[in-house]
Amino acid sequence: MNLWETVTGSDLTREWKAFEVRAEALPADHRAAWEQVKAHLFPYSGFTGRNLTPILDNALGLLEETAADGQDVRDVLGEDIAGFCAALAGGEGARSHRDRWREQLNRDVARKLGRLGG
User: Are 25 and 39 in contact (CB under 8 A)?
Assistant: First the structure.
């Protein structure tokens, strides 16, 4: 990846298009699970989303393998896709955008209160 791709995000666009092409080949139930996986993983992305690329690639690979083996998607991912995605992102303690923003807000408020009170 060169500087231009980093700045413009063209590398991410290519990868997302490749993911979607691969997902189109999945059976309907696996494709629906893919959409849910993307939706549940998105809150764990960094500013650019580059941190999710390998996770999404592996999740899509798992869906492709299970579809090829004829396995039911619920047997592989379980009933709790949000929990599955949290585990993929680093466990139940994985921080989402909301968690990071809340922590930043709390730090900012504490800093302001410290300046006003002291």
Answer: no
Q: Confidence class of residue 85 from pLDDT cuts 50, 70 and 90?
A: confident
Token pair 């791709």: residue: 5
Q: CA-to-CA distance for 79 and 114, rounded, in angstroms?
A: 46
Written in H, E and C, the secondary structure of the chain is: CCHHHHHHCHHHHHHHHHHHHHHHCCCHHHHHHHHHHHHHHHHHCCCCCHHHHHHHHHHHHHHHHHHHCCCCHHHHHCCCHHHHHHHHHCCCCCCCHHHHHHHHHHHHHHHHHHHHHC
Considering the entire predicted model, what is its pTM? 0.69
112 φ/ψ angles, rounded to the nearest 5 degrees: -65, -45
Tokens matching residue 97: 């955008």
**Which CATH superfamily does the domain covering 3-117 fall into?**
c-terminal domain of poly(a) binding protein (1.10.1900.10)
What is the mean predicted confidence (pLDDT) over 97-104?
68
User: Residue 87 CB: number of other CB atoms within 10 A?
Assistant: 13
